[in-house]
Amino acid sequence: MVEKFRNWVKWEDRNSLVGIKYPGIYCIAVSSKPLNTFDFIPELEYIGMTNSKGGLRSRLRQFDATIKKIRTHHGGADRFLYQYQDYEAIKDKIYVAICSFECNTKNPTPKDLRIMGEVAKCEYDCWAIYIENNGRYPKFNDMNNAPKYSKTKR
Questions:
Q1: What pLDDT score was predicted for residue 154?
Q2: Which residues of the chain have pLDDT under 70?
Q3: Where are the beta strands (DSSP E) in 5-139?
Q4: Is 23 exposed, middle or buried (0-12, 13-18, 19+ CB in 10 A)?
Q5: How many domains does the chain have?
Q6: Rg (CA), the chain
Q7: 126 lies in which domain range?
Q8: Is 153 left (phi over 0), alpha (psi -120 to 50) or beta?
Q9: What are the angstrom distances between the C-alpha of 146 and each of 39, 46, 73, 80, 81?
Q10: What is the pLDDT of residues 128-153, one digit of tens each?
Q11: 93 partner at 20 to 30 Å CA-CA among 4, 13, 31, 37?
């Protein structure tokens, strides 16, 4: 599974990732030290997926808009934002890695639909591997212990 992921890149470089226009899995990590080779490390704080027509690029744009407090349309990013409310202070410590699945989401054939099903299964596989390696869900996938910023009184 690990070998299917692109290496970690800084958050600001996410749009340069090969395969970002396709559906897939994305992992968000926060680290003060540079990250390169992907793995299910403790610093990985969120695992997400998308089968949307806009692919990973669109979903990561939603995550970005939420953590910048532009709009809160991404649940995982809303939980991320609860802990990391100062975007300028955290932006250089955010990394992303993706695993994309080439398929047509606009006019899907039965083959494309099966690939989209693989994306959903892959997310569960990633959670399972992360839990096996770290003994818990990624911090912001743990909905019982990670409150949302949008639910706080401001």
A1: 54
A2: 153-154
A3: 9-10, 24-30, 44-50, 94-100
A4: buried
A5: 1
A6: 15
A7: 2-151
A8: beta
A9: 23, 11, 16, 8, 10
A10: 999 999 999 999 999 999 999 998 85
A11: 4
